[in-house]
Design a protein that fits this description.
The chain is α/β, with parallel strands linked by helices and 361 residues long. The chain has helices spanning 21-32, 44-49, 56-65, 79-89, 105-108, 112-133, 190-209, 234-244, 264-276, 296-305, 331-336, 346-360, and strands spanning 12-16, 36-40, 69-72, 93-98, 138-144, 157-159, 164-166, 212-218, 220-222, 247-251, 258-263, 282-286, 293-295, 311-315, 325-326. Strands 3-2-1-4-5-8-12 form a 7-stranded parallel β-sheet, with helices on both faces. It is globular and about 55 Å long.
Amino acid sequence: MLEIQYIYEVKTALITGSTGLIGNESVRFLHDKGYKVIGIDNNLRKYFFGNNGDTTPVKNELLSQYKNYVHTQIDIRHLEELEKVFLEYGRDIEVIIHAAAQPSHDWAATEVFTDFGVNANGTLNILEMFRKYSASATFVYMSTNKVYGDFTNNFNFDEGGLRWSLSKGSKYAANGFDESIPVDGSLHSLFGVSKLSGDLLVQEYGRYYSLKTTCLRGGCLSGPTHKGAELHGFLSYLVRCAVAGDKYTIFGYKGKQVRDNLHSADLVSAFWEIIKKPGIAQVYNVGGTVTSNISILEAIKYLESLGFKLNYEISEKNRIGDHIWWISDMSKFKDDYPNWNITKNSYNIIDDTIEAYLKLK
C-alpha cells in the first residue's frame, strides 16, 4: 500500500524589533499560535541606551525556547539585507509586526539621521518589501501617541495632590484622547516626526496599494521584559531604580504627569484581533485607557507601599514636547474589535516588573 505524504505549509510571521518588549512578546504569542516566526533585530537598543538596553539575553532565550523562531541580525535601514529575508520567506509570510524603532524623543535629538533612518526610512524599506513579496499579509505598525505632538497640553488641567487631571469641561476628560486629535500645529520632538513619517507611509501603502495595514498609536507600553532606560520606558526604568536603589530624576510637571500604561501581553492580544479581521489603512490609539493609568508620584507611592523607597529628585524642566496628561481613548478599536479587553492595570504591570527584576538580581 502506497504511503501518501502531505506537505503542510507552516504559517509564517515576520517581526521586526523581535527582541524588544513588543517584539519578543509577539514572538512568544504567535509561536504558541503555531506560526514560524522570523525575527529581525540587530540590538540597536544597546547602542541607544547602553548595557541596560542590551537585548542579547532575550534573543538567546527565544532561540533556546522556541524551535520555530529564526533570528536575523539585520539593520532595517539596509534594504539589500532585508530583501534577502523576503526572497527566502516572503511568499509564506501572513503577518508582519513592525515594532523596530528608535523609541526615545530625547535620544532622537542627539543623532537625527539615525533616528529618522530607523523610524522613517526603515519603515519605508519594510513596507516596500511587504508590497513586493508578501502583499497578502496583514501589516501592523507600532506607532506612538507622540505623532500628536504636545497639542494635548493646550487643554486646562486641574492639579491634585499626586496627579494632574484634565478639567471636566473638556470633551476628552471622561475617556481620554481619541484619533481626532490633530497631528499639525504642535511641537512633536524629532522622534515624533520620524514616527509620524512612518505612520503616514503605512497608511498610504494601505490606501494606495490596497494593502492590509494598521497603525497603532501607543501610549506607554510596558511589561516584565521591558529594558527601560532613563531616556525611554518610564515605568520599567522607575521600577528598576527602586529595586536597585539607583537615583531617579523626574523631568517637570512636579511629578504629577499622568500616563496610561498597557501591558505588552494585552497589546499583543490586540494584534491578534487585527490579524483575525484586518482592515486597510486603519489607525487606532492604544493604551491603558481609563482602566490603567498612573502618575509618576502615584507609582512612587505604590512602590513605597511594597517596601521599595525610591531615591528621586524633581527637575523643573520638562522634556521637550512631553505630555502633561495622556490617556488613550480606545473606543474606536473596541467598536471594531469588541472581544478585546485590558487584563492588567498599571499596578499589575509594576508587580510583574518587580518580579522580573528580582529574578535577575
